[in-house]
C-alpha cells in the first residue's frame, strides 16, 4: 500500500500535477520522473487505476451532460448542459488525455529498456486509448511528433490530420498485437486489477479497441475499414476480441485506499440530488407510458442507473421523471420538480468497478457492420449480434443491481421480454440502424466519452436542444476548442490544423470522422 502511494507521488506528481499547459510542457517539465528513476511496473498501477478514475470522472462531468444522460440543474454555477464551456475546460481535458498518454509512453520507454514486452504491449494499447480520445475531442492533434522532446524532438509538434492520427493508431495497435502474440509474461500479475496479468485478455482488449476505432471512421471510405474489420473477425487466433462479459476491460477496486473508485467519498447530495438529475431524454428511451401517461414498462437497467425521486410532495405518483437538458433558468425549477437521480448506492461505492470497454460494444459494432454489409451475414446476423449486445449490457448491469437501495434482480425472462418490447424489438423496428445506435447509446452509459463520440458519428439518438443552450448558439458542441496556451505556444501548427479542418477554433467545427463533416464534405 505504501509502495503504491510512493509510486503515485514520484511518478505522477511531477508528470501529472505539474503538466498544466499542453504537449510542450508535458514534454519538458523538469519535475517529471525521468526514465530510469523507477521500473516500468511502477508506472503500471497508477496508470491503470488513476486512468480509469479520470475516465469515470469525465463520464460523469462531461459525457453525461453533453449527451443528455444527466443535466446539472441545481443552479447556474455549472451549466455544461447549456454548453457553457470555456478555455479552462478545454485546457483541463487536453491536459488529462495528454498526460496519461505521456505516462503510457514513459512506461513504454522503461519497458523497452527492461526488455519487458508485456508492458511494451500494454503501454501501446493504453497510449492509443487516450490518444483516440484526445483526437476525438479536438480533431487534428500532434501524434507523430508528440512527447519526443526528451529524445531531442521538437517542443512545437505538428498537428497531424485526424486521418493520419487514426492510421498511426492502427499501426500502434498492430504493433501491440504482435507483441502480445509473443506470449510475454506479466511479471507481477497482482498489480493488474483488470486482467490479473493475462496477456490473452489484454490482447482481446487491444483488438476490441481496434474495432472501436475502425467503427469510428467507418463513414470515411478511404480508411478501408471493411477490409480491416473483416481481417480481424476472420482471424480470431491472430486477432482475438471480446467473447463475453468476462473479457470486459473493467478495473476492479478493492475499496481499500488507494484502490478506491472515483466517487467513493461522494455523498448523494454532491453526486446527483443537489443538481445532477436524469433527463427526459433518458427516461423516454427507457420507459413506456400509455395514452394516459401511466408508466407501464421500463428498461430493466433503469432502476440500476438511477432512482425515482423519493419525495412524495413532488413525486406522489412514484414515477420516473427526467429534467430538461438545456432548459432556461426560468424553466429550471418547474422542469426539475420530482425528477429522478443517479443511483448513488450503486455508483458511489469504494469497490464500484469501472470499464474502459465492454463486450456489448463489440457486439453492437458487429451488428452495425453486418447490417451495412461490411461483414457477411446480412440482417439475420445483425439481429443476432444486436440481441447479444443488448443481453450482455443488461447482464453486466444486473450484477450491480444488488447494491441498489432497493435491490434489483434481472432474470433471463426479463431480458427476453425487453428484447420483444417496443423499446428494443428488432423485428418491430422500422429503422434498424437507429435501433442499434440508440441501444448502443444506452449500453455506453458510464463508459468514458463514448456516447458523445458515437452521437457525433451517427446522429443518434435524436436529441432535443433546450431553449437555454445559448452558449454555443443552440449547437451541441461538435468538438472542444484548442486551449489558449496551445494557440499561443504552438500557433502556426494549430492554425494549420484549423485551416485543414475548415473551421474556427470553436465548438462548432466538426471533427473529420463525424456525420456532420462527411455530409458537408468537410
From TrEMBL:
Q: Which SUPFAM superfamilies match?
A: TPR-like
Q: Say if the entry is tagged with keyword Protein biosynthesis.
A: no
Keywords of the record: Lipoprotein
* InterPro entries, per database record: SusD-like_2, TPR-like_helical_dom_sf
Q: In its keyword annotation, does this UniProt entry include Glycosyltransferase?
A: no
A Pfam family annotated for this UniProt entry: SusD-like_2
Q: What is this protein called?
A: SusD/RagB family nutrient-binding outer membrane lipoprotein
Amino acid at each position: 500500500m505504501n509502495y503504491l502511494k510512493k509510486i503515485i507521488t514520484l511518478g505522477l506528481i511531477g508528470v501529472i500535477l505539474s503538466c498544466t499547459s499542453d504537449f510542450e510542457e508535458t514534454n519538458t517539465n523538469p519535475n517529471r520522473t525521468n526514465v530510469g528513476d523507477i521500473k516500468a511496473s511502477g508506472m503500471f498501477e497508477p496508470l491503470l487505476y488513476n486512468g480509469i478514475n479520470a475516465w469515470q470522472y469525465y463520464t460523469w462531468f462531461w459525457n453525461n451532460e453533453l449527451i443528455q444522460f444527466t443535466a446539472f440543474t441545481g443552479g447556474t454555477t455549472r451549466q455544461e448542459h447549456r454548453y457553457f464551456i470555456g478555455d479552462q475546460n478545454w485546457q483541463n481535458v487536453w491536459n488529462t488525455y495528454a498526460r496519461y498518454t505521456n505516462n503510457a509512453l514513459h512506461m513504454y520507454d522503461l519497458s523497452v529498456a527492461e526488455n519487458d514486452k508485456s508492458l511494451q504491449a500494454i503501454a501501446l494499447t493504453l497510449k492509443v486509448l487516450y490518444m483516440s480520445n484526445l483526437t476525438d475531442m479536438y480533431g487534428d492533434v500532434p501524434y507523430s511528433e508528440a512527447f519526443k522532446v526528451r529524445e531531442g524532438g521538437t517542443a512545437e509538434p505538428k498537428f497531424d490530420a485526424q486521418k493520419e492520427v487514426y492510421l498511426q493508431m492502427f499501426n500502434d495497435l498492430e504493433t501491440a498485437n504482435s507483441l502480445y502474440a509473443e506470449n510475454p509474461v506479466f511479471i507481477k500479475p497482482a498489480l493488474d486489477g483488470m486482467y490479473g496479468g493475462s496477456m490473452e485478455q489484454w490482447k482481446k482488449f487491444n483488438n476490441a479497441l481496434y474495432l472501436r476505432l475502425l467503427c469510428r471512421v467507418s463513414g470515411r471510405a478511404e480508411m478501408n475499414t471493411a477490409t480491416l474489420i473483416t481481417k480481424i473477425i476472420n482471424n480470431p487466433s491472430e486477432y482475438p476480441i471480446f467473447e463475453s462479459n468476462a473479457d470486459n476491460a473493467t478495473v476492479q477496486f478493492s475499496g481499500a485506499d488507494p484502490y478506491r473508485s472515483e466517487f467513493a467519498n461522494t455523498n448523494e447530495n454532491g453526486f446527483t440530488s443537489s443538481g445532477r438529475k436524469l433527463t427526459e431524454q433518458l427516461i423516454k428511451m427507457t420507459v413506456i407510458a400509455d395514452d394516459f401517461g401511466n408508466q407501464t414498462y421500463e428498461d430493466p437497467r433503469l432502476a440500476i442507473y438511477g432512482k425515482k425521486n423519493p419525495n412524495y410532495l413532488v413525486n406522489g405518483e412514484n414515477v420516473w421523471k427526467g429534467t430538461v437538458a438545456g432548459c432556461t433558468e426560468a424553466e429550471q425549477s418547474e422542469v426539475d420538480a420530482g425528477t429522478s437521480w443517479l443511483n448513488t448506492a450503486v455508483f458511489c461505492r469504494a469497490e464500484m468497478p469501472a470499464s474502459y470497454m465492454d463486450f456489448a460494444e463489440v457486439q453492437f459494432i458487429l451488428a452495425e457492420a453486418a447490417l451495412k454489409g461490411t461483414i457477411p451475414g446480412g440482417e439475420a446476423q445483425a439481429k443476432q449480434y444486436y440481441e447479444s449486445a443488448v443481453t450482455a449490457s443488461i447482464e453486466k448491469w444486473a450484477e450491480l443491481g444488488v447494491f441498489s437501495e432497493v435491490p434489483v434482480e434481472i432474470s433471463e425472462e426479463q431480458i427476453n421480454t425487453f428484447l420483444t418490447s417496443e423499446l428494443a424489438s428488432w423485428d418491430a423496428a422500422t429503422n434498424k440502424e437507429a435501433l442499434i445506435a440508440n441501444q448502443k447509446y444506452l449500453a455506453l452509459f458510464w463508459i468514458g466519452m463514448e456516447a458523445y463520440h458515437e452521437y457525433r458519428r451517427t446522429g443518434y439518438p435524436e436529441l432535443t436542444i433546450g431553449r437555454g443552450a445559448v452558449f454555443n448558439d443552440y449547437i451541441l458542441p461538435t468538438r472542444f476548442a484548442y486551449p489558449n496556451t496551445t494557440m499561443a505556444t504552438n500557433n502556426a501548427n494549430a492554425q494549420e490544423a484549423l485551416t485543414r479542418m475548415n473551421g474556427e477554433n470553436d465548438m462548432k467545427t466538426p471533427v473529420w470522422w463525424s456525420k456532420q463533416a462527411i455530409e458537408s464534405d468537410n
